[in-house]
Amino acid sequence: MKKLLFEARVKESLHLLEERSGASLEYAQGSIIGVVSTMQAFGYNFKDAWREVISYLPNNLRVNAIPTCWLNLEGTWTLPFDKLVKFKMLLDTIPEEMRDIPSQYTEGYTCRDEMLDKYLHIMSILQRESDRAIHDWRENHKWDSDHEPKIDFSFVPFRQAGSQYIAEWAVSDRRKKHKESVNWHGQNTSQWLYAGCLLVDNGRVSIHT
């Protein structure tokens, strides 16, 4: 009974992270910080509390309501989230029966939870590599406009290949000279700073870079 009450309270608080909740980003962020802080007060360490929270986060969450420091980032979110695939769209693409398959990597996680965990990790990579390019420009090129990076992001919906669902992502610098640098998928990689894909195969979730 206590566990059910706890779950209900957590879900009610994390509901504020939904895109259409009406809550401000600051209020939504305060709600998830409050949930994790409460769990820590009851003896959870941060890692375990965050892992538990992943399972309760809404599918249509606003990523920028999650504190950047929890994803090993500094500063604030600057990603163009409206141009990047939403987690719910990815989840809705895979068969329902696959979503509850237990994770092979994280105890207590389902395929859905593992997908969300890795989705957030990819978002952190996109933010980190963008920040790194800007920092390099400021440090090494002293804000010279001729060298200012023109950052572009890509994270597209799944495409299906047999049993596999593949969602490709990349962070690129359009200032870099476009060369004939093509990988075996036929993609020009000359402007990429970092790229990879989220792969779901029969309930197994992985990131490939």
Please give a structural write-up.
The chain has 209 residues and is α+β, with helices and mostly antiparallel strands. The chain has two domains: 1-66, no CATH class; 78-209, Heat Shock Protein 90. The chain is 39% helix and 16% strand. It has helices at residues 2-14, 25-41, 46-56, 87-93, 96-99, 111-140; strands spanning 151-155, 159-161, 164-173, 192-201, 204-208. Strands 1, 2, 3, 4 and 5 form a five-stranded antiparallel β-sheet that branches. Helix 2 crosses helix 3 (46-56). The radius of gyration is 19 Å and the shape is globular. The model has no long low-confidence stretch (mean pLDDT 90).
Topology:
Blueprint: H1 2-14, H2 25-41, H3 46-56, H4 87-93, H5 96-99, H6 111-140, E1 151-155, E2 159-161, E3 164-173, E4 192-201, E5 204-208
Antiparallel strand pairs: 1-3, 2-3, 3-4, 4-5
Helix pairs in contact: 2-3
